Predict the structure.
Amino acid sequence: MFDNLVDRLERSFKILKGEGKITEINVAETLKDIRRALLDADVSYKIAKQFCDDVKQKALGQNVLTAVKPEQMMVKIVHDELAALMGSDSSDINVKGHPGIVLVAGLQGSGKTTFSGKLALNCKSKRGMKVMLAACDVYRPAAIDQLKVLGEQIQVPVYSEDGVKNPVAIAKNAVSKARQEGYSLVIVDTAGRLAVDEEMMDEISALKKALNPTETLFVVDAMTGQDAVETAKSFNDRLDFDGVVLTKMDGDTRGGAALSIKAVVGKPIKFISSGEKMEALDVFHPNRIADRILGMGDVVTLVEKAQEQFDEEQARKLKKKLAKNQFTLMDFYDQIQQIKKMGNIKDIASMIPGVGKALKDVEMSNDSFKGVEAIILSMTPLEREKPEIINGSRRKRIADGSGTSVAEVNRLLKQFDGMRKVMKSAMGLGGMKGMMRGMPGMRRR
C-alpha cells in the first residue's frame, strides 16, 4: 500500500536536506516533486495542485526553529496536510437502532459481499452485537451462496428467500425478522450496479427509501484509482451515502483513491479492507495512514492488532522462558501462529518505523512461514525443546520429513540460536527482523 508514493515523497524531501532555512525557491522545487509524486499516485491534478498550494502557504509562514531542520519541518507540514486531505479523524459507523441497518452498495466486483461478512464479524466480535446478514443480490447466481458460506464461517445467520427477485421485499422481511428475534444489527448486501444503469440505480435508491438505514456504505475497489473517485461521486449524487469502504488495499494500488475521495465527494472513508481473511478489516485513520505514507510506520495499529491476539497468561509464561533462556522452537512456532492471525506479514512489518523500508525488496507473505513450520513440525518434541541435540542424521531426517533441504534446516537452527540470544538480552526487533528476513521463502526481488 502506497509503496511508490512513500519512495517518491522521501526523494522530494531530500531536496531540502542540508538547507539552512526554508525559502520560496527550495520550497517550490520540493513541491514540484511532491506534485509529480501525487499525480503518479493517481491523485487528480486539481487536488494535487491545491494540496501543494496549501503546503507552500504553511511552509513559507513558518518560523523554523534552530533545533528543527527544514526537511523535518516540511515532513511535518506535509503529514498534517495529508491527514487533513483524507479527513483528519476517523469516522465511526452508526449502528444504533432496533435494529441498526447498514446498507452496502457499490460497483460489480468491488468486494461488497466479502466486506459485508467482514463487517458482520467486526460488529459481532468487537462491538458485541447480535448480527444478521440479508442476501439481497438476486442477480448474481452465486452471491447468495457466497454470503451463506461467509455467514457460516463467522457464525452469523443469513436471511434469504429462494426464488424471490424483489430485493426491497427481501430486505424489509429480513429487518422485520431481526426485530422480532432481537437482533441488534442487519447488514444488507446488495447487487453490484453501474452508475450509468438507471434501472439498477433506481433500485438501490428504492432500497434506501424503504429501509431508512442508519448507515449507507459505498464499497469501492481501491485499485481503480481516479475511476473509483468519479464512481463514488456519481453514486453519492443519487444515494447520498454516509461513508466509503476501500477494498483490495493489499493489491497494486497507488493510493489515489484514498487521498482523493474525501476532497471530491465530501464523505469520509470509514473502513479499508485488505486480504481474504474475514478479520482483515480496519477502521480508516487518516493520521495513521499519513504516518505510513511518510515512512513513519503505524505503531498504534500494530499494538491494537497485537492486543486482539494477545493471551496474557501465555505472554507471562513466555516472558519467564525468555528470562531463563528456555525459549523453544515450539514457542517460536506458536508465536508465528499469533503473528499470522494479525494479517498480512509484510503489512504488519511495515507498521514498525524503519522496518517497512528495510523489507521493501523482500518477498514476504504468510506462505513464507510454510517451510519454517514444516521443519519445526518434522522434529520430535525433544528436538524442539533442545535443538542443540540435532546432529547430521537428525537434520537429514527433518529435511526429508519437511520437504526442505538440510541447508534450510541448518539456516533455521542457526537463526533461531541467534534470535534466542538477542531476545534473552533484550526483546528488541533485531533478532526477529533478521529471523524473518532470512527465512526460507523470503528473498530479495
